[in-house]
Each structure stands twice: as structure tokens, then as C-alpha cells.
Amino acid sequence: MPPLARTLITSLPSLSLSLTLAGPQLGLISDLPGLNPRIPLDYATFKGTNAFLGVSSFLGMPFAKAGRYENPRVVNA
């Protein structure tokens, strides 16, 4: 395996974590539950945004589910 490919593969998990944590500040992941102050942490279900789902499904994370986060207080009103 070429050194560049090995480096990219081994750095993907830390890169996705960095994007997940820095996303709201960078405007990449603006409505990920629990990381955005507008969305309370108790509703954090990791149904997040398309960017988070794309990274999660690419890495095969088991908690990535299709669909966007919906605030229960709005949906069930």
C-alpha cells in the first residue's frame, strides 16, 4: 500500500471527529444535536445533518441513520 494511502486511511477517524466537533464553528455542521446551543443536548440522537451522515456512513459507524433531526417540541405541538 502506498504511504499516502496508508496515511489517509489511518487519519480518517480523527479527521471525522475533528469535523464533528469543529463543524458548528466552521458552519459545516450547523444543526448537529448537542453541539449546537440552539438544539438541547437531551435531544441528541445523532440523526444530525447530511454532512455528519455522509462521514459516518463512509466510516461505517453503526449509529448513522437516514433522516434529519426533528425537534419533538415542534413536531408534536
Short summary:
The protein has 77 residues and is mainly alpha-helical.
Overall description:
- Keywords: Signal.
- Residues 1-22 form the signal peptide.
- With 77 residues, the chain is mostly helical.
- It has three helices and no strands.
- It has helices spanning 3-26, 50-59, 72-75.
Q: What would you call the structural class?
A: mainly alpha
Number of domains: 1
Strand content: under 5%
Helical fraction: 40-55%
What number is the mean pLDDT? 51
Signal peptide: 1-22
Keywords: Signal
Secondary-structure blueprint:
Blueprint: H1 3-26, H2 50-59, H3 72-75
Helix pairs in contact: 1-2
Index terms:
0% strand; elongated; 77 residues; 3 helices; signal; mainly alpha; single chain
